[in-house]
């Protein structure tokens, strides 16, 4: 699943190629992916792309509309979409001229074409989704806040308002495992499973550490790690074409997705341990016992709690 750094890079990539261009057509390939009906996707046709923005893990293509689809006072319409686990953006300088045939989405593991956006110069992009669990979500709205999941997003972790004090308040609000807080989009927007693993390695905390136990020093350490990890990942993704972002993300991971490999250490000095994994029904997390849990391995949460 793309997280804040990749979504930010995708926004930059699309903005550089679409801003100022006119949308010639929007074709729906997967009816299941489209979550709204008013305005319809066709209302974007004839409008000019004015910006591409990011809200947490959501992408937002703002289009100055032509005709009756316009928002209040001629405000842009917004094509907002969440790629979820299997979705992706596929850009083409010359899209196929063959019309997209709508479907219900199906259960194929192969990539399904969910939406195609055509621009006036023949270029454009497809939203595709692979895997049997189709979760890609596409909305056409007059205001991004009309999408409840965007309206309820928490603080942006790289915004000036995300201070150590704000993080302390979030940690105290509910006594839960720290990994769960980092992944909670209503608390902190844009961090998912992969970067929460990375942040916890760099800050040297167990993913199961309870938020109510954080001291001021530990809170500051976690805050620093959040900023450092995300800033580093954004710099690594910046300027890369969409097709290279997945590989760039994998290459930059210290522990996530590296089960059984030597741990590089929280400070770039190998600690001598191997990366461990805990598996869940629909995901897994990786960590280093030496760097994060005092040398104690974590038990599989499907069976038991942290070995003490």
TrEMBL record:
Cross-referenced Gene3D superfamilies: 1.10.8.50, MutM-like, N-terminal (3.20.190.10)
SUPFAM superfamilies named in the record: Glucocorticoid receptor-like (DNA-binding domain), N-terminal domain of MutM-like DNA repair proteins, S13-like H2TH domain
Molecular function GO labels: 8-oxo-7,8-dihydroguanine DNA N-glycosylase activity; class I DNA-(apurinic or apyrimidinic site) endonuclease activity; damaged DNA binding; zinc ion binding
Formamidopyrimidine-DNA glycosylase catalytic domain residues: 2-136
Reactions listed under catalytic activity: Hydrolysis of DNA containing ring-opened 7-methylguanine residues, releasing 2,6-diamino-4-hydroxy-5-(N-methyl)formamidopyrimidine
This protein's name: Formamidopyrimidine-DNA glycosylase
Key words of the record: DNA damage, DNA repair, DNA-binding, Glycosidase, Hydrolase, Lyase, Metal-binding, Multifunctional enzyme, Zinc, Zinc-finger
Recorded superkingdom: Bacteria
EC number of this enzyme: 3.2.2.23, 4.2.99.18
Family: Belongs to the FPG family.
Domain FPG-type: residue ranges: 254-293
GO biological process, one term: base-excision repair
UniProt entry tagged with the keyword GTP-binding: no
Range of residues in the leader sequence: none
């Amino acid at each position: 699943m793309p997280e804040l750094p990749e979504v930010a890079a995708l926004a930059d990539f699309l903005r550089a190629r679409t801003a100022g261009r006119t949308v010639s057509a929007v074709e729906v390939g997967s009816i299941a992916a489209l979550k709204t009906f008013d305005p319809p996707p066709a209302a974007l046709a004839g409008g000019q792309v004015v910006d591409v923005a990011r809200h947490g893990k959501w992408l937002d293509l703002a289009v100055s509309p032509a005709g009756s689809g316009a928002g209040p006072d001629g405000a842009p319409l917004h094509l907002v979409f969440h790629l979820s686990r299997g979705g992706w953006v596929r850009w083409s300088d010359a899209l196929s001229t063959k019309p997209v045939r709508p479907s219900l989405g199906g259960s194929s593991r192969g990539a399904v074409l969910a939406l195609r956006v055509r621009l006036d110069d023949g270029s454009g992009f497809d939203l595709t989704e692979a895997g049997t669990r189709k979760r890609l979500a596409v909305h056409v709205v007059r205001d991004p806040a009309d999408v409840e999941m965007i309206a309820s997003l928490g603080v942006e972790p790289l915004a000036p308002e995300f201070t150590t004090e704000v993080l302390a308040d979030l940690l105290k609000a509910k006594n839960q495992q720290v990994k769960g807080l980092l992944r909670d989009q209503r608390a902190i927007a844009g961090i998912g499973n992969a970067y929460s693993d990375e942040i916890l390695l760099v800050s040297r905390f167990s993913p199961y550490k309870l938020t109510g136990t954080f001291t001021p020093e530990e809170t500051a350490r976690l805050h620093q790690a959040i900023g450092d990890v995300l800033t580093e990942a954004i710099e690594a993704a910046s300027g890369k074409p969409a097709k290279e972002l997945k590989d760039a993300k994998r290459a930059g991971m210290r522990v996530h997705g590296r089960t059984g490999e030597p741990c590089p250490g929280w400070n770039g000095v190998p600690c001598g341990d191997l990366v461990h994994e805990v598996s869940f029904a629909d995901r897994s997390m990786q960590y280093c016992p030496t760097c994060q849990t005092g040398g104690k391995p974590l038990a599989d949460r499907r069976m038991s709690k942290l070995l003490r």
